[in-house]
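Quality-control log, excerpt.
Job 1 of 2 completed; input and output follow.
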Amino acid sequence: FFILLVSPSVYYFLFFQSEMENYTWPEIQDLVIQAQTRFHMCVDKTKLTELDLSNRILRQKNFMLALINKDKIQTHFFLPFWGRRTFFTEELKYLYEMILFWGPGSPFSDHSTLQKSFRRGDKAELAAKLQRVITWYAIISLFLSPLIFIWQVFYSTFTIVELMERKKGVLGMRRWSPLARQQLRNYNELDHIFQYRLNTAYWPADKYVRSFMSPVLAILARHVAFVFAALLAVALIFAMVDETLLITNNVPLTIAGLGVVLGVCRSLIPDEDESHNPRELMEYVVKLTHYGPSEDWKGQEHTLRVRESFCMQFQYRLNFWIEQTLSPLIAPFILFFCLRPRALDIVSFFRSFTVTVEGVGDVCSFAQLNVSKHGNPQWSSERSNASQTEQSENGKTEMSVVAFKVRCTDGEL
């Protein structure tokens, strides 16, 4: 009873937690805005807007989106005999956020304020300081990489086995890559809204990729699947007749291996009852994902070049697990050889594109959704005074404005 009197939040948590699960995000926003008007939780501002709330919640994520959109963080690499490939894993994203936002030596003094030195200090000195910080992170990551690699191997293996128990053909299924989640996300787009949009776009994207399947490969997959299905059936029959085979002669391992190969073959066999038009499917995917480089993809949706470019965003789950497993061994070298040389660009970015909003703190100026300041003339009819360095790429500002206005209920932007 004493605790409830001292802390009304404890009382609220105990008795109203179940009700909170039934609220929608617009309702929660309205409650917070009304509470600000009555209780002045934020002393620096009388009234909060939906844009203020989004900027405060998504501060670091908006900065990360802008850094990748303006190519301040390298995500594409040219490999001999392999060509131009992307490499951006969850571990790399975590390291970038630690270095730039909340870890020791980051440009932010806390989670909401850019250090004064990064606003007024000498850029060369700040870049050298950031390079030293990145170097230390690279050394520590290299030292810990064997342990993290071993843990990642076990984690990926257990994840694959668990998913194979729940979903058939999981190795042949696809998922949005970590880089795609940065490219497809709008500024000020909350996690649950963004995830819903990706889930909606999954099946059209999968149908688009599968519409390019080779008839020769499909025929070969059918024959291989038939042979391995027959072998699997024989192995299961023998195991049912003699249960001791499940303990000896590596029969369980054989059955598991046959099941994996069979699942991969089934993923390569298209559905004979469906017909797909690559152009229509890609137009629908672009409509849902809000991303489609018009100059590169428009009118070329039926080509293998566009498909390969799209598959870098919509990768096989097996590829994702391989990249995640190898990431501890590769990440230290990317930090040292790729991120460290861009320290000056990152310092210039934070100085040029950080604005202070009263009651919110330091936020990314791109997230203020000002088309006149960051708009691209190729994507909007509204006049923009932005220079090339100030413009967002691939219409990200314009798409973010449209998406936010659709969700916005207070009419303010």
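Job 2 of 2 completed; input and output follow.
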Amino acid sequence: MLKITEFLKTNFVNRAILLLLFSMVVYFLCMDVAFYFHNQSRTYTFISSKEEHTYSPFKDITMKLAMSDHPNHYFYLLTAEKFDEATNFSGVFFFVTPNMISVLHTFVSILCGKLFSSDSLNMRRLGVLLFVLRTWLDALDGVVFRARVKKRHVFFSQRGSSGYFVDAVADVISGVAMSIGLIIYLSRSWAKRHTELLPKSKSPENGSTTYTPNGSHQVVSKRRIILKVAVFGIMILLAAGLWDRFHDLYHHLLESPKASVEQQGRELVVLKSSMMWIIIWFWRILNAPELIEMMLAAILVDRVWEFLSWIIYAGPVAVCLLSVITEIHYHTVSSFIGKIPTVT
């Protein structure tokens, strides 16, 4: 709380950033409430065809959309869909493929990594803005792909496709670029901070000022910085892998076009249940993109080290605990619906 108070006292930009972040959280929570109540009125479990209409975050709900992170669902995807509807980008620029867009946002993410390594807070904040552009382009390549295959607004993972592989590689490169940039920045920052804290002494011979070690000041080694960033990266990979696993399991369990009428009725009961949506909501918070968005927020408020020091302990515990609860829930509802659980 004290650090937040100090941050608020600095300048107008910092206050504006905190106001923006607070407004985003309120917006996401309000949209979640609307999304939940809209889901309670659904009468379908599987989207087999698509009628043409403007995009809405509350229509055509699939497990992939329901489990998506808040920024992607309520901002990136929403604005990318509206952009394509307004400009017909996927039709006018027919020669621009989704993979080309993926390659483009990969280069943007590398530039972001360079900016994240800067000693200037303003440059790091510029890196955040470019990373937002990078994530928006990531959403746009999905919009273009769905438009080209005539499945606009139908949100399912295209496992096994070249686009699925290219997207995964692009995401990994993006994460690596961010990690390297943060390691460079934190290493410089702690080295500079340690130098400033060292007590000064006058040389008796020539009167020059030198620095001498002092055990009372905290020293953070580069090895420790690399370790923390690496743990954060591993946590991101863990969250991504588990999210993908459970999303795929629930997709096959609750969105099967071959289910009997009785099974579809039970699937709908599960999809509308409070426990199902509690699990979905926590996966929205603990999936990889949302954790990366949290890191971007930490960069904006210049609290990267503090965020890392907290999330590398709380994050893995939360992800593993949620995975256990999700696994138990999945097998429970599988028995209720009358399907054999699929293990992947």
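Post-run check on job 2. The mean pLDDT is 84.
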